[in-house]
Amino acid sequence: xxxxxxxxxxxxxxxxxxxxxxxxxxxxxxxxxxxxxxxxxxxxxxxxxxxxxxxxxxxxxxxxxxxxxxxxxxxxxxxxxxxxxxxxxxxxxxxxxxxxxxxxxxxxxxxxxxxxxxxxxxxxxxxxxxxxxxxxxxxxxxxxxxxxxxxxxxxxxxxxxxxxxxxxxxxxxxxxxxxxxxxxxxxxxxxxxxxxxxxxxxxxxxxxxxxxxxxxxxxxxxxxxxxxxxxxxxxxxxxxxxxxxxxxxxxxxxxxxxxxxxxxxxxxxxxxxxxxxxxxxxxxxxxxxxxxxxxxxxxxxxxxxxxxxxxxxxxxxxxxxxxxxxxxxxxxxxxxxxxxx
Length: 341
Known about the structure:
Layout: H1 7-27, H2 32-52, H3 67-98, H4 106-128, H5 133-150, H6 152-167, E1 175-178, E2 183-189, E3 193-197, E4 203-207, H7 208-213, E5 216-218, E6 226-235, H8 240-253, E7 257-258, E8 264-270, E9 274-283, H9 289-307, H10 321-340
Antiparallel strand pairs: 1-2, 1-5, 2-3, 3-4, 6-9, 7-9, 8-9
């Protein structure tokens, strides 16, 4: 249609490419679908002009090698490859949004975008400027090895972050517990680290490589509810059934715990000194563990007083009683001997 003269198609491609960039920026980042539509329209228009003008973007221009026409030819091809990259990236953004991926998916998304830009950059170098890509890739490989050895820890954090994102062990907003006992809510995650907001309102920054090596317990899945087990020792003067009924009334009187599933009173042990029971109950979230336990302890105290039950001494304290008693008698005997003498 344009004959042998490719000058006009090159001008049109440059105009479409620059206009597409301007309109793309006007759309703003809050309208990904609008941006994608703009990218598709302008990329389709540029591709159509290339096809009608018999211009191959994957081959260096053999017609215009110098002057203003050569500049237009190279800029047209660069703009076409750039719009191709943006169109593919636009589809990736839409796919992530439509599938409601967790925010951690931006690690994989960023990695895919980096691969696309790298591929486009190599394509521009090889197809537009005619440089040998093989030599460039080999040189880049040597440089990458040098940087890899120098940045081992950082790369370990990056790949650990990718592994954690793929495994979806947690998401932003989840409450997690680490193998060393650290607890907190995930407030931020990136290529290198994960930030936890602890109950003491401190932010703990954990490198992803360290986090991947530790055991992570997600306290927010499958839901936000959290089970608590509280042990109470009651003096063995009353029947275990009565103790169970009193402890059950304690759980029923609580307003901070969940009643469905119903809480459980489990008799764990009995001896001549005490009946040991365990109160098992759930709360709506980890954030109210302490208020719920405080309420249960207060109710146990009140119900024991009202029912005539007595709390027993801790089991570990009984081991010191014979020693204390044995140490007292010699003292009494010495005092008596001194008084007699």
